[in-house]
C-alpha cells in the first residue's frame, strides 16, 4: 500500500504555509518549493488543487502568495488527503479491479474486499481525528497523542 507523492508533497506544502498562519504571512510558490525541495511546477500544481478545494487563498501581486483559508485547527487531514488523492478503498474499487471479466469472480463472498474495507476504516479513524495543527508539532508529539505511538513504544 502506498500514499502518492502528491499527498505527501501536498501535506508538506500545507504545513509550510500553516507555520505562518498566525503571523498572517503569505508564501510564494518559489519560497515553498525551495523550502520543501520540490520543483516550482509541481508545487504550483499541488497548490492549485488545494486552493480549488478551499484549503488555501491566493493573492496576486508583489505582496501576494498563499495563505490558509481557515485555521490549522479547522483543516482535517482526511479532507486534505481526499482532495489530493482520494481514498485507498471506495465502493467502486471491486468494479475497477475485475480482471478480464465484467464482474469480479469473488463478488458474492470476498474476504479480500473485507480486508481493504478494514484497512480503509482504520486509516479513516486516525486521519479523521487529526488536523493540520496536530501535524505542526514535533514528530514525538504526534506519537504521544496517538494511541498507536503508545502501543509501539510499549513493544520496543
Which tags fit this structure?
single chain; about 160 residues; mainly alpha; Arc Repressor Mutant, subunit A; about 55% helix; about 5% strand; globular; disordered C terminus
Helix-residue proportion: 40-55%
**Mean residue pLDDT:** 83
Proportion of strand residues? 5-15%
Whole-number total of structural domains: 1
Shape: globular
**Helix run count:** 9
Order of helices and strands: HHHEEHHHHHH
The CATH superfamily turns out to be Winged helix-like DNA-binding domain superfamily/Winged helix DNA-binding domain
From the coordinates shown, what is the CATH architecture? Orthogonal Bundle
Q: What's the β-strand tally?
A: 2
Unreliable runs:
149-156
Rg from alpha-carbon coordinates: 19 Å
Q: State the major sheet.
A: 2 strands, antiparallel
Give the spatial strand order of the biggest sheet.
1-2
Tell me about this structure.
There is one protein chain. By secondary structure, this protein is mostly helical. The protein has one domain: Arc Repressor Mutant, subunit A. The protein has helices at 5-18, 29-36, 40-52, 77-84, 93-96, 111-127, 132-135, 139-145, 147-155, and strands at 56-59, 65-68. The protein has a two-stranded antiparallel ribbon. Strand 1 and strand 2 (65-68) form a beta hairpin. The longest helix has 17 residues, at 111-127. The model is unreliable at 149-156 (pLDDT under 50).
